[in-house]
Amino acid sequence: MSNLKTDILNYLESQKVYGKNIFFDDDGIEFKIDKEIAGEKMAKKQSPNNEIKISQKISETKVEKTQVLQEIETKEQKVTQHIVKIDENSVSKNWRDAGSLEVLYDDIHDCMRCELGATRNKFVFGTGDPNADLLIIGEAPGRDEDAQGEPFVGRSGKLLTTILESIQLSRDDVFIANILKCRPPNNRRPSTSEVDTCEVYLHKQIELINPKYILALGLTAADTLLKEKCVMKDIRGEILDYRGKKLMITYHPSALLRNPNLKRPVWEDMKKLKELLVN
User: Fold this and answer.
1) Parallel, antiparallel, or unpaired for β 175-178 and 134-138?
2) Residue 20, domain extent
3) Distance CA 225, CA 212 (A)
4) Adjacent-strand bridge partners of 240
5) In 99-182, which ranges are continuous DSSP H helix?
6) pTM over 0.85
7) Number of domains making up the chain
8) Looking at the chain, which runs of residues are DSSP E strands?
9) What is the pLDDT of residues 179-204, one digit of tens each?
10) Could you tell me the CA-to-CA distances from 221 to 99, 174, 195, 217 in Å, in that order?
């Protein structure tokens, strides 16, 4: 009977039906019926026929799960076959000599120098004032950015716009970019090789824009830029050096969406940055 109970437990969990009439103990082993909200039928002991039906349903679910896993594996194999086609000649050989952001974009936007080129929808180069005093850097494009080809769109992008407006800046007054120009699948963290391949484009953007200050958003971006494991409370709001430029780090807008209590420290950082830009 214990094996059947385990199967039932796994089935209910896979179907996400717990939470209304059924809840799980903290030990994750047993399950109980909530007497206050369970109906009369739920309160009755399962008959042998019901046990057989549930066992049959569990078997069917296992078959369906196996089929889904096989489909996923097949798709992953197809992607793997596609992403190995790395092309060093997909960018202009003279891209390092580009004299403007426009020329740089033309030189590199078809980049296939790492596997992310094969999985992206759009190359996210960056947008804004090519002569901006403030360069804002995130880690990598997300789903919305990959779809639209622009950095920081969607909910976090709208919040970033609001944050900039709070210090009398618009997106047109700054330049916004990411360390990576292509979205990592499932928004995973970029690999070291992907960063090494793509960060050189950011270096060239910094050279062409020549900003007075760089604002990095999020701890992952900070770790990637500074090449060390950082603690946000130790570096947030401080003026650091990044390749000869003044760098400030604050929380990513998505972190504020998850935790509104972070709005206060970000506001303090932005006020400080505004004073630095004015002086």
Assistant:
1) parallel
2) 2-68
3) 17
4) 247
5) 101-108, 116-119, 143-148, 154-165
6) no
7) 2
8) 22-24, 31-33, 127-128, 134-138, 175-178, 213-217, 240-242, 245-250
9) 999 999 998 989 999 999 999 999 99
10) 26, 18, 11, 6
